[in-house]
Design goal:
The protein is 34% helix and 17% strand. The protein is α/β, with parallel strands linked by helices.
């Protein structure tokens, strides 16, 4: 795997919550971040219910840190990311949310509420694409 070209770290992003049901995509994001020089911990969950448990620090995640950034796969197997996005934007609006989709054309057809997301992107196919997304929405504390 190619490592990222970015060598600077991001202030304000320590914990990234990845809500992604495809194990290969999860592994790709985790490896991308781990192989970069960013000091970011990726916390992966595979369902919207697990994402909500993580955010609310309940169920399997009572000690979960509050994420500084959320990558949300819109097309989860049993549902869309709508439930997670709604909770985040209603109760945790300070946390940036990036909606990832396999196809930009699906964004319009899936009635994606892009106005609630901080960013909507097609899933990158190269490591630098994910790093660029993280950098573009990183809080500037």
């Amino acid at each position: 795997m190619k490592t990222s070209n970015y060598s600077d770290s991001l202030r304000g992003v320590n914990d990234l919550l990845l809500v992604e049901d495809n194990p290969a995509d999860s592994r790709f994001v985790e490896e991308t971040v781990n192989n970069s020089s960013l000091d970011v911990t990726v916390h992966s969950v595979s369902t919207s219910a697990a994402g909500l448990d993580f955010i609310h620090q309940q169920g399997e995640y009572p000690d979960a840190p509050e994420p500084d950034l959320v990558f949300l796969d819109w097309n989860l197997r049993r549902t869309t990311g709508r439930d997670v996005l709604t909770v985040l934007k209603d109760d945790y609006s300070h946390i940036p949310v990036v909606i990832l989709t396999g196809s930009k054309t699906k964004v319009g057809t899936d009635h994606l509420p892009s106005s609630k997301a901080d960013l909507v992107r097609e899933k990158p196919t190269d490591p630098d694409g994910y790093i660029k997304i993280i950098r573009s929405v990183a809080p500037s504390h």
